[in-house]
Sequence to fold (470 residues):
Amino acid sequence: MMVSGTLLRLFAVCIGTATITGIAVHVAIRAEAGAPASSSTALQTTLAVIVAGAISCTLTWLSSRGLRTRLRSVRYAAEAIAAGNLERRIHDHNFDEIGGLAAAFNSMTDQLRDRIEALNVEGNRLSSILESMVEGVIATDRQERIVHINAAAARILGLRESEALGKQIWKATRFPQIHDLIAKAMLGKAGVRTEITRPSAADDEVIELRASTLVDAHRTVRGAVVVLHDVTHLRRLERMRRDFVSNVSHELKTPLMAIQGIVETMLDDPDMDPETSVRFLARLRNQCERLGSLVHDLLELSRVESMPAAHDRERVDLRTSIRNSVEHNLPYADEKDIELTYDECEDALIVFGDAEMLRQLADNLLQNAIKYTPGDGHVVATCRREAGFAIFEVRDDGIGIERKHLDRIFERFYRVDKARSRELGGTGLGLSIVKHVAIAHEGNVEVESEPGVGTCFRLRLPLAPSEQAE
Fold:
């Protein structure tokens, strides 16, 4: 069995004490006898020293066994806790110094465990928050190595979290703007931000970056954190708003300038002959009607876009709205010598919606088809049930639309042929109104077209729940 250094020191102290005691006794006996000690006296003294030392060592050994066992338990517990076993405790209930040490050790372990659990809970909460964020978050150390990246940041930058950790951020992302932003943040600049453009198949993605410094309790810079926000949709809306304002201004300016020119011409020539005057007044009326149609469509589009999803909803038979629209547009089709037919579904097509809005939707689709179909053409309106949806189609054999325009024809003021559209009296808002009416009814509208063959617009609206089961 290995003997501890503490025990050896205790033995040395005992032997030394016994030796000193024996020598002291020997000197005392000699002084009392007043004569030189004999060999027998020296032998007796030596034996006394040996016996005293043996007795001291024995008593020390016996008394130190319990001490060694208690100290060994403290050491083993400390080693177990250092290895991560925070449930380990020292069971020593004596009221001496070692018992106090054991109690303090157990209390320290309890506090350590509670703090580690609190840190784990807080860390899990923070991790859950970061992972659930729409914004991307990247944290780096002073060497700009990535120490944390959430799923949103990895998705925005096209990275893998496991591969990005530990890499310098400029090596992982290949965006020098991020490196420059972090460098500025570490210099103590507050509120630094920038934008980067990431090429995409559909549209370039615009990412807004904001960086701030990470500091410790002593205000020493330890790294930086970058927040990434995908603002592609916001920038697209801003662009659409600018385009909308520009288009509205242009569309309103055209008839207003025509009206102004006609009025000024008539005022400058008070003796204008009646025939010319009538012709000018007819043109003035046409421009006023065009201006009125434009304002009406703008107001209607604004009303549809701002209408809540559940506004004025009632059970409506889609067939009735379509039938009323077909009857309303028959004279317009006859005027262009176009055959307009309606193939109505035999079963009711009950949807939750606004009957007037649905009729206006049908009007826009039918008028659009009649407008761009040459004389002797055909426009066919049909409706049917299909897998829980009401389907309304308007098919024509008109001029058709090129494929490159199909993704944009539902935009405000977008025209495939601007000159022809204005000549035919279009405002450029009809199909945009159709799209937003469909969205307001939780449906969608699709288009299929081929130049020279014709076009088919298809509206799909969900049937009322009671109708879907039939």
